[in-house]
Design goal:
There is one protein chain. A hairpin with a 2-residue loop joins strand 4 (82-87) and strand 5. The chain has one domain (2-107): Glutaredoxin (3-Layer(aba) Sandwich), CATH 3.40.30.10. The chain is α/β, with parallel strands linked by helices. The chain has helices at 7-16, 32-47, 64-74, 102-109; strands spanning 2-3, 22-27, 54-59, 82-87, 90-96.
Amino acid sequence: MNSIHSIEDLEAFIAGSHEHPAVLFKHSTRCPISAQAAEEMKQVTAQFEGKNIAFGLVLVVEDREVSLAAQDKLGVKHESPQVMLLKDGSVIWHVSHHQIRCDRLESILSPVS
């Protein structure tokens, strides 16, 4: 999973979704629910490694400006933890909190990989 630390990184990640699906994970290092979501995301990224899907990580506390820019650029209200699937520069699916589960993400990502 690629870390996104700047608005330029975020813009490049979004632009990449015109070439292949992209999954953006917004994670809080201070939240136990987000810690569980991070474990689920580790499983998902391992399963889809080498497939044509990009995975990006925004740490919402450490890189708050980037997290807020994601909300503005993608038009999805900020939540944390949050996962968004991007295609052609737009969010086509998103979930947050306890909805971030490996099985659920696998069912969404398998058809697009």
